[in-house]
Amino acid sequence: MSALQEQFVTEARELIRQATDDLIALEQAGASTERIDSAFRAFHTLKGSAGVVELPAMGVMLHAAEDLLAGIRHGRLRIDAEIIDAALACLDQVSRWVDDFGAVGALPVRSGEDGRAMAERLRSLLPGGPELFAPGPIPGKTEDLLPEWVSRLLATEREVLASGLRKRPSVATAICYEPIPGCFYNGDDPLELMRKIPALLAFRIEPREPFLPLADIDPYACNLRLLAISFADFAEIAGIFRLVPDQVRIVRIPPEASSNGEEPGELHDLSLVGTVIEAQCELLRMAERSEDFAGCVGAAARAAVNALRYGQQLHLADAVGRGGALALAQHHPGPLLSELEKALGALADKPSDVVARALDRPDNTTAGAPERTVDRVLRVSEAKIDALVNLAGELVVARNALAYSARQVEQAIGGGEISRSIQRDHEAIDRLVNELHGTVLQLRMVPMAQLFGSFPRLIRDLARQLGKKVSLVTRGETTEIDKTILDRLFEPMVHLVRNALDHGVEDAEQRRAAGKSDAATISIAASRVGDRLLLEIADDGRGIDPGMVRQKASERRLLPQDELNALTDDAVIDLIFSAGFSTVSAVSDISGRGIGMDVVRTTMDQIAGSVSLESKVGIGTNVRLYLPMTIAMSRIMVVEAGGQLFGIAMDAVSETILLTPDRVSTIKTNDGFVLRDRIVPIVSLAELMRLPRQARDATAARLLVVMEAAGRIAAFEIDAIRDRLDVVLKPMHGLLAGARGYAGTTLMGNGQVLLVLDVKELLP
Amino acid sequence: MTVRRSDAGVVLLEGACAVEDAEPLLQLLQGSPLPVIDWTECSHLHTAVVQVVLASGIRPIGPCGDAWVRQWTEPELPRRETVG
Questions:
Q1: Is residue A142 part of a domain?
Q2: Is pTM beyond 0.80 here?
Q3: What is the mean pLDDT of residues A81-101?
Q4: Largest Cα–Cα distance of chain A, in whole Å?
């Protein structure tokens, strides 16, 4: 895959996301000019890019979508769910194709038909608007932006049309047929189709590209554009051209357009000329690296020439054309680039304020602007960042080793000059390594917006499917989190949101009866709480009935009945996260919560997060996910037991205690003690790890590490606490991958491998 | 022959001129000075033939025998006999 194609795949994904956001915002907030423009730009840029990498099927489809948006933009169409549905479906298709293209460098075999079908679906939503049946033949050409040819045809044929209309008031239809160059070989006779147009009012035949001198002409290459206006019915004309849908554009001419002299979009288009040329400049700058240099230069020159001709800048178009030829000959984009820049300069000097605005606007709101803002960001593959993170992690380990060596030196030679110097250097390196590590980890921090981005669409589709009205409120999009964690959050979030929508949110009638507004609100909010990130998913639905949960829990025998009875309502609701509960399929009748809660809990365990849920019957449910901001580093405590060192994650340690024997009570054979009214069992870590237990003085105090995880508490008896370290935890792999009870390993300063315990597994 | 040069040097289009007539027509026109075309006797013109006529810039002697072309295309052709 060439650099150009790779660039296309990356950018297309960004544009699809942008367009999706815009469409959903449009549907929710109504037609704001900015959003329409933004969506239009995204579709337009996508279409142009599809043309550059030669994906005509994608181009045809996007062209139709663009027409739809143009209709909205010009106020000819009102936004409704159907239009948004169709446009989103189009984006889905594009997204699938971009994936295919990224994977195998080509679109699926059926893409042509699928693209046309999608284009037809989109166009069917354009009632009486201009472009009704206009699969643009060559995506990326500026002529396709707006039906410029219609205005041109109207300008010359207005009298004919007006007189025709006086005789026969009706809607006229304009036809632009650009037969493909090889059509004669296919047995086509384009004029034959034109002859079949009934109620023909005007006809023009013109060369698509200026005719070459007779000596150079290929008589069998069709270079014609056939334009016509007819009073015939739109469907009838579409029928005539049904075999060449990719070569024809059929447009209904609204009566007002044929009577008054207004030609919409004239100046407007000129502003696009500048942005089209800018886009070509960007393309060319990349083209040097591309395998298909000639293709890039050719395409860029063509697009720019077309744009300039379209903007009536004929001398500029000629100059750019010459620059393109020169660039091809010299195999260097320089000549074309310099002509394009000159053309841009010339356009900027034009007295048209529209053009000036397009070129000078600092806030990048012109078409093509998205690429520019995007391009300022350096794209680095995730693998490279991960490698960097790993290296920085190794450096932290090496730094720990240095600390160890520094201590050794100090012990060996005392606090002399050398020792102090090493200490100083160590401190400096320590600080730098910490800073480096922090900075490198920052590289992986991504805004929550990346996660939130998918939900407006998901919620919209689900709500439509369920026939409920739901609005989504998101907060804290800019809060950053490690990408590895963010990637893990999507699935649990989907379950939570789906549960909220499906079971939490009542239908409109029930809501009205409960005195709530018809539209429910689901809010997703991210915020920083200390060194953790709090992600809240809340709805204002019916809430979870603790009585029902209690009943189910009792049916499932999750807890002994007396314990269950003793639980508060809040604690009961928490039960839906307990293992036996969440896998039960029948919970969907308890306002459905529980399905997928399993996923939520498991994921939270894996990323060292936690989840809690609060629900009030009739008011709503609020699920809180507490997440670590990064998972690259863990703080561990190094303890000794049975003559061996073990690491324990600090997250799990609630306190360390030196316990005098008189506080220990023995129940059967187990030791335990009371800590703030809770009975904490004492477990010998050495015994647990099957290590020889050291003889203990029965009167000496016992060193305990109290640990809490997954709602359980226990104290590990250890021989000594050796150290506290920030480490990069490596998961167990190879033969040890299946070993239970270990969270992973890490290297100590002295090169020793330290086993880090998985406290959750070990707690009794 | 649907395309031929008359003894007087006029290029004649006669009867139904099909796609394959485009090339001989082009050959007849590739010379200097540009010859005169007469399309009064043709009954039907293929697009490829019309394209060659258009590309030559010549306004043929009319009216065109192909009624549709006469109505819709002929009026649009350049007024001058030849275009340099």
A1: no
A2: no
A3: 90
A4: 117
